[in-house]
Amino acid sequence: MNYLVVLGTVRKGRYSKAVADFIVKTAKKNYPKEHFELLDIKDLNLSLNQEGSKLTDTSLIEKLKSTHGFIFVFPEYNHSFPASLKLFIDLWDKDRLYLHKTCACVGVSSGRYGGTRAIESFINVARALGMFVTYRDANITKVQEEFKNSVPENPKKWENLVTPMLEELVKVTNLLIK
User: What are phi and psi of 173, to 5 degrees?
Assistant: First the structure.
């Protein structure tokens, strides 16, 4: 199965990148038969001028089509997820590329709630796209303290947090594909 870990923020100094890298590394270690890949939306150079357009990046369209499950990693901005992630989703929704695919959410915050409100906000969008949202999320709290120098201070702690989410995502995806 193919899984895409979508890093959903383009902000400078983002800690979410370290979290996304950690999730990909953990997923590859725990599920060597599955294919996990990071997609950093910052690399796409999206523009608000593209809003409402149907994009023609065929390599990305093919990647999204061949993806069976998504893990969206995003910080909480003003009780929601970043506008850059919403733009990314909307630009590629014209072809229903997310329909009937699984997704898990990883909220990242500097506070003690780990992006809970951002995840709650994102779930509505994911369901509107026809995605199957896992019931297990990962909430990364106090990220600036926990992920110093782009690596977790206590890797086992965070591996124990993300592993149940990964386990459910892989299990549900396999059930849907069979």
Answer: -60, -45
Q: How many helices (H) and strands (E) does the chain have?
A: 6, 6
Mean pLDDT, residues 142-150 taken together:
87
Give tens-digit pLDDT for 158-178: 999 999 999 999 999 999 987
For the stretch 147-160, pLDDT in tens is 887 888 899 999 99
CA 127 to chain centre: 15
Residue 46 backbone dihedrals phi, psi, to 5 degrees: -70, 150
pLDDT at 126: 95
133 forms beta bridges with 103
Neighbours of 94 (CB within 10 A): 12
Nearest residue to 91 (alpha-carbon basis) of 38, 146, 138, 129: 129
φ and ψ of 90, to 5 deg: -65, -35
What is the rounded distance in angstroms from the CA atom of residue 118 to the CA atom of residue 111?
13
Protein fold of 2-177: Rossmann fold (3.40.50)
